[in-house]
């Protein structure tokens, strides 16, 4: 859950709506007559072409990140073979990617809160990389696969100019004129008009301060959320990398395995470095990716019925169970089903912790709070390869156990979260 980044529950549109739908602290009346708030303007403008454009562009950014993460799983067998890498060296390659994410996480959140929010479909990106692996790696090689996978990122850079600055951010910064221009632009694209009068909302005095995160109101919440994000990422990327390692090295306890899955990584005369993914392996990974959206309706139902905290607890306990079930002897079809359900659970967990974090922090510190949480999630992503790609060769049970234990501990920690955000008004300031 890098660091996530997917589906309608975690898309950037959700955060855009969070920012634009918050109720202001107060509504000031000016001497010139009528006034309106950002919330009222958004209600008047309604849904239209701007939101579709936002959905496509910001969804595409999620696709790009998912492609980069899934690339680690698909390319690992190829670089292990060509460069004769040991397990720890393959894991180090994965860890460096998450290190870059971690360093930029807090910095990006701080810059967004101070200077603006140009925000930075997960399953789609994962599936694209797997399909590229099936088509490109056997013919052109893994280097061409990386070159092709970079192309969407270059295109996306030019598309970001179509995303205006957040009106809610501009208001909180006291830049009302810029907020009005943003709302006018959205209204023009949606063929609507703004409410009569002028925009009037109070400016937030404290923005982008880490002191809010560690204040008496949010200290316990912040610490628990940092661990929740760590576990969300640790479990998510653990499931992705573990599945690729199990398939590549044929470490599964499979009944009636075909010849391709009988070649082992560790042999009597040494290591077998070159065990490429078979076509069936790509199919298994592809099907497991579908699990990230297949149970979204269930995810929504749990959120609306049980709330955020209880949903997190249920998902994390179920993920802990399915991590251990991966170790049982079954058919390839059975493994595919288990992997599908595991990917569903860890993905839903990432969705919920993302939503809860966006709802629990006030606008004054939301991006910074998300930045801190994202950095802790990247730490989980940095550790996951050394469990999934190194320890897995020694013992499948020992490699899967840390993921399961981390999920159980996180589930217990949820009971200490002081705030349930279901039905709770979103805050402009602390």
TrEMBL record:
Keywords: Membrane, Transmembrane, Transmembrane helix, Transport. The chain crosses the membrane at residues 52-76, 88-108, 120-138, 144-163, 223-242, 285-305, 317-342, 396-417. The keyword GTP-binding does not apply. One of its GO terms (molecular function) is transmembrane transporter activity. InterPro entries: MFS, MFS_dom, MFS_sugar_transport-like, MFS_trans_sf. It is a multi-pass membrane protein. It is found in: Membrane. GO terms for cellular component: membrane. PROSITE patterns: MFS. Residues 1-422 form the Major facilitator superfamily (MFS) profile domain. Pfam families: MFS_1, Sugar_tr. Belongs to the major facilitator superfamily. This is Transporter SVOPL. The gene is svopl.
